[in-house]
């Protein structure tokens, strides 16, 4: 593949997105391609508990993306993976959400990801595999690095 062709491929980066509608103050219906899902808060946070909350979806998105990249990189490295499980959790201080608390992040303070893999690959290969997975996972990149977000308001 020529350099010109590689650059051309990078210039045509696909775009992914969703549309969403507020059903209540805590419940949102989201459409992505031909799929629809509900985001809601648990009852103790004023919701109806009709679906995971936004930060749970973020953790789930990370698990889903890691799953794809883990298998992709394992195939490239010739690693056979019989089973993968992900446990992701993080602390979130609600004080910024509930009031303008100075010096407190609104989001996760950090995320801990535990991947349990059933494989016969040796430890050195698995460490190289894990480093490549961390480097290549789009959701890990978005969570670990600043991603510009432009929020615009349209009124009707």
TL;DR?
This protein is an alpha+beta fold and 156 residues long.
Provide structural commentary.
- There is one protein chain.
- The protein is α+β, with helices and mostly antiparallel strands and 156 residues long.
- It folds into 2 domains: 1-51, Single Sheet (N-terminal domain of TfIIb); 53-145, 2-Layer Sandwich (GMP Synthetase, Chain A, domain 3), CATH 3.30.300.20.
- It is built from 5 helices and 5 strands; from the N terminus they run H-E-E-E-H-E-H-E-H-H.
- It has helices spanning 3-11, 54-77, 95-98, 123-136, 138-144, and strands at 19-22, 28-32, 35-39, 81-89, 112-119.
- The strands form 2 sheets. A 3-stranded antiparallel sheet has the order 1-2-3, with no helix packed on it. It has a two-stranded antiparallel ribbon with strand order 4-5.
- Helix 2 (54-77) packs across helix 4 (123-136).
- It is globular and about 55 Å long.
- The relative contact order is 0.12.
- This is OsmC family protein.
- Residues 1-12 have a biased composition (Basic and acidic residues).
- Residues 18-27 have a biased composition (Low complexity).
- Strand fraction equals 15-25%
Instruction: Specify the helix fraction band.
Output: 25-40%
* DSSP strand count: 5
Oligomer description: single chain
What is the CA–CA distance across the termini? 49 Å
Mean pLDDT: 92
Taking Cα atoms only, what radius of gyration do you get, to the nearest Å?
19 Å
**Number of domains in the coordinates?**
2
The CATH topology of the largest domain is what?
Answer: GMP Synthetase, Chain A, domain 3
Backbone shape: globular
Q: What order do the SSEs take from the amino end to the carboxyl end, as H and E?
A: HEEEHEHEHH
Structural class call reads alpha+beta
Provide the low-confidence segments as ranges.
Answer: 1-5
CATH-scheme architecture of the largest domain? 2-Layer Sandwich
CATH-assigned homologous superfamily of the largest domain? K homology (KH) domain
- State the strand order across the main sheet: 1-2-3
Protein name: OsmC family protein
Biased composition (Basic and acidic residues): 1-12
Biased composition (Low complexity): 18-27
InterPro entries: KH_dom-like_a/b, OsmC/Ohr_fam, OsmC/Ohr_hydroprdx_reductase, OsmC/Ohrsf
């Amino acid at each position: 593949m020529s350099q010109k062709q590689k650059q051309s491929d990078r210039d045509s980066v696909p775009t992914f997105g969703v549309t969403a509608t507020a059903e209540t103050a805590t419940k949102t219906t989201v459409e992505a391609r031909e799929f629809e899902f509900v985001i809601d808060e648990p009852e103790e946070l004023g919701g109806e508990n009709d679906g995971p909350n936004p930060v749970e979806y973020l953790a789930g998105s990370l698990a889903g993306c890691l799953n794809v990249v883990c298998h992709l990189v394992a195939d490239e490295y010739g690693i056979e993976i019989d089973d993968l499980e992900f446990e992701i959790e993080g602390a979130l201080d609600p004080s910024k959400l509930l009031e303008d608390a100075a010096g407190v992040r609104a989001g996760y303070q950090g995320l801990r990801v535990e991947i349990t893999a059933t494989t016969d690959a040796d430890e050195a290969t698995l460490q190289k595999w894990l480093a490549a997975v961390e480097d290549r996972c789009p959701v890990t990149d978005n969570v670990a690095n600043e991603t510009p977000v432009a929020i615009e308001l349209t009124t009707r």
